[in-house]
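Long-time lurker. I teach an intro course on protein structure, and each term I like to show students one example going from raw sequence to a predicted 3D structure in token notation. This year I'd like something fresh instead of my usual example. Would anyone be willing to generate the tokens for the chain below so I can use it in lecture? Attribution to the forum is fine with me.
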Amino acid sequence: MLVTTQEMFEKSMKEKFAIGAFNVNDMEIMQGIVDAAAVTNSPVILQASSSAIKYAKIGYLMKMVEAAVEEHPNIPIAMHLDHGPDFETAKMCIDHGFTSVMIDGSKYDFEENIALTKQVVEYAHSKGVVVEAELGKLAGIEDEVNVAASDAMYTDPAQAEEFVKRTGCDSLAIAIGTSHGAYKFKGEAKLRFDILQEIKNRIPATPIVLHGASTVIPSLVEMCNQYGGDIPGAKGVPDEMLHQASISGVSKINVDTDLRLAMTAGIRKTFAENPNAFDPRKYLGVARELIQETVKHKMTNVFGSAGKA
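-- Reply from a regular --
Happy to contribute to a lecture. Here you go:
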């Protein structure tokens, strides 16, 4: 069933688990994600960035979501805009049936971010759609999001409390040390759980979102490199830290890089072992299976959402 994230988050905060939000670009990725949710009986958030929408076209994406809902009617599925850059993009997604949108005003100053977020909240709420906002800046690169490490900043808990009160946003993405892309840490991985705890203390009823939270699964990086890839030194957020976040008040954890790695690893392995392969179903099917296994692992062993549908 296609739902907003509201009921999902209420349950996640009460029972202390997180819901995975997985980026989709095409049919195989979406099928791998939703099939994993069905197997694990987990709620799931499908999300698309504005560049993914440009690539796949919003009409195609929504028809695929409809098909997923029809095939798995008992699994709560939300369709979410990831990193909406402006009001127009958020409005387009709302008008096309997205049940949740993110407006990312983190690149603006505090007052501009509030003004933009309020504009989106007012329109979304009038249509029964919920809104995620962001406060603080995550380093790294993902689609149109590109923030230098020197410009990254942690979320200020006092500002977070004021921001939620003034905007009326339904959930808040915070910066506690994660970053976008495959190269999240140069040294030892570290997340500021003290900041997370203070934010939760100040806004206990607001679901918290963690962006840039792929593990950059070492076995997938190794598989990519083994079969002709060149991804040296890729490093993500360890599963143990993400699990700690999921039981410490984070309701939504975003995953994109791990899906890209799974898809690429499956395709590279197929081509290396079968150089005469040219049927897309043969290599995309393998990629879809790896994506499903990756998502199942997240839901069952990291986020704790298995059995929570």
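Some talking points for your students: The first helix runs from residue 6 to 15. The domain at 6-301 is CATH 3.20.20.70 (TIM Barrel).
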